[in-house]
Amino acid sequence: MHALIVVSHPDTRSMTSSVARALADSVEKAGHTVEFADLAEEEFDPRFRQADVEAHLLKSPPPRDVRAEQERLERADALVLIYPVYWWSMPGLMKGWIDRVFSNGWAYDDSDPSRIVKKLGHLPIHLIALPGASERTYLRHGYLDAMKTQIDHGIFDYCGAPVVRHELLFGIADDDGTDLLGIVRSIGAGLFDREPRRQQMTAHSARAG
Ligand SMILES: Cc1cc2nc3c(=O)[nH]c(=O)nc-3n(C[C@H](O)[C@H](O)[C@H](O)COP(=O)(O)O)c2cc1C
């Protein structure tokens, strides 16, 4: 099986980047192949511009850089998104990647507004987020539910793509010996297990993991 791993972080020495590399290694060690997309390093342009509007209206094909990303996704049996939480969501760079790449006509088709066609039912999604705030803060303010609604349902369910997991790796700020990379390696080793864990957005501290 083949995974596309997309990471959004400006610093390749960051924890987010380490998590992405650990996940890629463990997926490969489990006998699968990986394509690694570092959006910052590859200088993906997240701006939704006139050419994207034309494509959205189905007046012209998607821009070449968008098409290249769609081709990466077409080669993948699973998509893994790894991101630091910025303002209770994904970073703008990753959001822009979704804005542009998950385009009308490719990810879904709304030509008939009474019946949106969901076109990504074949693409399981795995999200791994690194938050700065504590699990308590997320629960107290409802941020976990808000992220699940906006990202899992609002984006991926709209396209029919099943969200297998959406993990928040609490504990990076605590420096309490949490083996985050160990958790990530076990996610990678089981990425293509036939019986994926039920859809979840785990308040995942190592204490629970
Ligand atoms: C612009 C910005 C916005 C942030 N917003 C949030 C936030 O809304 N919630 C949160 O838990 N952490 C937030 N953080 C903290 C980051 O999520 C945290 O620093 C990051 O996950 C640490 O991972 P890293 O070491 O890979 O950068 C924010 C950080 C930045 C730079």
From TrEMBL:
Its EC number is 1.-.-.-. Pfam families: Flavodoxin_2 (PF02525). One of its GO terms (molecular function) is oxidoreductase activity. Keywords: Oxidoreductase. It is an enzyme of class 1 (oxidoreductase). The keyword Oxidoreductase applies. Residues 1-175 form the Flavodoxin-like fold domain. Gene3D superfamilies: 3.40.50.360. InterPro entries: Flavodoxin_fold (IPR003680), Flavoprotein-like_sf (IPR029039), NAD(P)H_dehydrogenase_qn (IPR051545). The keyword Oxidoreductase applies. Belongs to the NAD(P)H dehydrogenase (quinone) family. PANTHER family: NAD P H OXIDOREDUCTASE-RELATED, NAD(P)H DEHYDROGENASE [QUINONE] 1 ISOFORM 1. This is NAD(P)H-dependent oxidoreductase. The lineage of its organism: Bacteria, Pseudomonadati, Pseudomonadota, Alphaproteobacteria, Sphingomonadales.
